[in-house]
Amino acid sequence: MQELTFSPLSILVLHGPNLNLLGQREPGIYGSLTLIEINRLLEAEGLKLQAKVLPVQSNHEGILVDTIHEALGKYQGILINAGAYTHTSVALRDAIAAVNLPTVEVHLSNIYRREDFRHHSYIAPVAVGQISGFGVQSYLLGLQALVHHLRSG
Ligand code: CA2
């Protein structure tokens, strides 16, 4: 049987502030998996999709901006959970717009069922799309959607 092979893709996965605490606090909202476990699941999903996944977490807006700038030429797409910076950061939005790499926004919780201040995303207008509310599945679905978008574009 003939194997389907795709051109290699590298995807930058960005996790924003406080997501390093996953699995240790607030499991009712964010689930019981740690960030390391989520990254392992993403890497396994990447293998299935023939895409290399590189996860980075930072609590610092400037580091996230620098990491987005450095993605140019190294990665074909970005999967991002910007955490609380989703609702505050024009700088992250401008960085994504500047590098112009296809970006998918994900959230563990459904931000539209929560406090009003979480209903607005600065990232959404510069993203290909957004997946919110499916726990770790938001990340896995987001990775699938991004890879599909990159391969069909
Ligand atoms: O639902 C999401 O994925 C969020 O991006 C998570 C952010 C929140 O500010 C967004 O509105 C929605 C918060 C991440 C905080 O993660 C924690 C993990 C464990 C314990 C406390 C916080």
Tag the structure with descriptive keywords.
binds ligand CA2; 153 residues; Rossmann fold; alpha/beta; five-stranded parallel beta sheet; 37% helix
Can you characterise this structure?
The protein has 153 residues and is an alpha/beta fold. It has a single domain (9-152), classed as 3-Layer(aba) Sandwich (Rossmann fold), CATH 3.40.50. Helix content is 37%, strand content 18%. It contains 5 helices and 5 strands. The chain has helices spanning 27-30, 35-49, 61-71, 90-99, 136-152; strands spanning 9-15, 51-57, 77-81, 103-107, 129-132. It has a 5-stranded parallel sheet, with helices on both faces. Helix 4 (90-99) links the parallel strand 3 and strand 4. Residues 18-19, 21-22, 25-26, 30, 81, 83-84, 86, 107-109, 111, 118 line the site of ligand CA2.
Q: In angstroms, what is the radius of gyration? A: 15 Å
Mind summarizing the main beta sheet? 5 strands, parallel
- Heteromolecules bound: ligand CA2
Any guess at the CATH architecture? 3-Layer(aba) Sandwich
Low-pLDDT regions: none
How many separate structural domains? 1
Helical content class: 25-40%
The count of strands amounts to 5
Return the CATH class: Alpha Beta
CATH superfamily grouping: Dehydroquinase, class II
Strand content: 15-25%
Envelope shape = globular
User: Could you give the order of strands across the largest sheet?
Assistant: 2-1-3-4-5
Would you give the CATH topology?
Rossmann fold
Order of helices and strands: EHHEHEHEEH
Give the oligomeric state of the chains in this entry, treating copies of one chain as homo and distinct chains as hetero: single chain
